[in-house]
Design brief:
Length: 118
């Protein structure tokens, strides 16, 4: 089967097909007609409209676009909510991690604790 196909392709490559003189005359006549038409019609010049970008869009693009700002904003709102409300379930999770009762964690110590000489 493959030998038959190889022979067929080899014979097809050996014969060079030339277009007829009539075909070439018709193609060249169509090309000349199109050139005449295109010379009569004025070319359309596309004018690029400059779109002004506001400062907020520039700031959003600086941080990776509006999608990334939405994600960061959502995480910030969730963090503020959990920080101020402190749901009851959150305290039990902290108790499991610390293996003791954690009532209040002081993230930023007072100035007195920093100045104390211990």
């Amino acid at each position: 089967m493959m030998d038959n196909l190889d022979d067929l392709f080899a014979s097809a490559q050996a014969v060079r097909m030339q277009p007829s003189d009539g075909l070439m005359a018709r193609v060249l006549a169509d090309a000349v007609a199109e050139q005449a038409v295109s010379r009569q019609v004025r070319p359309v010049v596309a004018v690029a409209q400059v779109r002004r970008v506001g400062w907020l869009a520039s700031l959003a693009a600086l941080f990776g676009g509006a999608g990334s700002l939405v994600g960061v904003g959502s995480a910030a709102v969730a963090g503020l909510f959990l920080g101020f409300v402190q749901p009851d379930g959150l305290g039990s999770v902290a108790d499991l991690w610390a293996q003791a009762s954690v009532d209040q964690v002081e993230m930023i110590p007072q100035l007195d604790a920093l100045l104390a000489e211990e």
